[in-house]
Amino acid sequence: MAAEPDNQQPQPDWNALAVNGEADAIAPLLRAVFSQSSFQIQVRGMGPTLQIFLLGDQLPEAAIATQRIQQALVERSLPWQSVRVEGYILGAISPTWTHQFDLQATQVLAPPSQQKAYKSGQKTPQKISRQAVSTPDEAQLTRAQRIRPKVISTLSKGPQTLPNETIGVLVTGFLLAIPLSVMGFLRMLFQGWLILVHELGHALTYWLFGYPAIPSVNLLYGGGITLAVGRLWLLVWMILGGLSYLIYRCRRSSNALSWILTMTVAYALLAFSPWHTRLISYMGHGAETLAIIGCLYFAIGGYFCKLGGERTIYAMLGWFTWFETIRFAWGLLFDTTARANYIGGIGGVLDNDFVKLANSFDVELGTITTFFLIGAIVAPIVAIFFYRYEACWQNALRRD
């Protein structure tokens, strides 16, 4: 009887793939380090930085996880310069903790068994042989803080450059957004995205200042409309109470305290003055500007992107919103028909947002529109600026 052929596929050489710069090969290597782990491991290469995401309902201690990852990676000659490790609780939009270390300059620490010899008077070597490294267990790490690696909890202090891959994502998203903004059917289809952003901007700002509101679609005249009821002062006092609690919790952190105090004073000045109604009117189109910045920032940094192509989708939505906001503002400034229709209001009854603002400030409609147009034009630059100087503003928020 003939022997059955062996259909089992050979196991890939993850180590060789990792050394050759395949970021996806890092995840299987790390799963072997975290045996029987209750969290997922995802890895992505972003230029000179290797990004590692730990996702789960329960995450390991930050220093322990980083220690194990560091010792697993320095044993291999990897092409990346630095490693950023982020721990995410499932469903969270921001990391629970973030650590970064320099992969090329990392010095491997001796295991506890060798550290005892150094305590007896021997001179500590500058660098321990990689073959002598063993991964300590969690109990050893928690008892001996001295063996933890020196970890940089924030990003590198200098400005970040945009890798070629990121530039390709932005260019691809730009090219995909052109037909969405030019072709009638596609433009009408993606107008729903703009309506959603616009009305959510109104609704969230309404709620922020104590007006329960619901964004909805305006089926009669097209577009959308946000329905709000009378002001509930209880909501305003609850927000002020929450800010006061944050002030108390952060009383020992001078930097955090200054930020929260500034937010509290600004909120109070807006909430108890007519300016909050002006902000509500502006934040429909203002949310569109924020959407441009947010989408392009996520596309550049790859944040909240777990599957391939998500960065391109973010870029496409950001550029589409950019095209449409410029088209809208340009029409109000230079198209007589578009301006007349806009001034006519919604059904000839409700004034549009910029008309309300122009009447409130007693200025021309073109003044409000020009302000909005300038903000929309520079929005992509702001997104790139936020990414390039990410370390500066994050450190400013975190510094004591």
Helix-strand blueprint:
Layout: H1 14-19, H2 26-33, E1 40-46, E2 49-56, H3 62-74, E3 82-89, E4 97-102, H4 112-119, H5 138-143, H6 164-182, H7 184-208, E5 213-217, E6 224-228, H8 233-249, H9 254-271, H10 275-301, H11 310-334, H12 336-344, H13 353-361, H14 365-388, H15 390-398
Parallel strand pairs: 2-3
Antiparallel strand pairs: 1-2, 3-4, 5-6
Helix pairs in contact: 6-7, 6-10, 6-11, 7-10, 8-9, 10-11, 10-13, 10-14, 11-12, 11-14, 13-14
Care to describe what's here?
Strand 5 (213-217) and strand 6 (224-228) form a beta hairpin. Strands 1-2-3-4 form a four-stranded mixed beta sheet, covered by helices on one side. The protein has a two-stranded antiparallel sheet with strand order 5-6. With 400 residues, it is of the alpha+beta class. It is built from 15 helices and six strands. The protein has helices at residues 14-19, 26-33, 62-74, 112-119, 138-143, 164-182, 184-208, 233-249, 254-271, 275-301, 310-334, 336-344, 353-361, 365-388, 390-398, and strands at residues 40-46, 49-56, 82-89, 97-102, 213-217, 224-228.
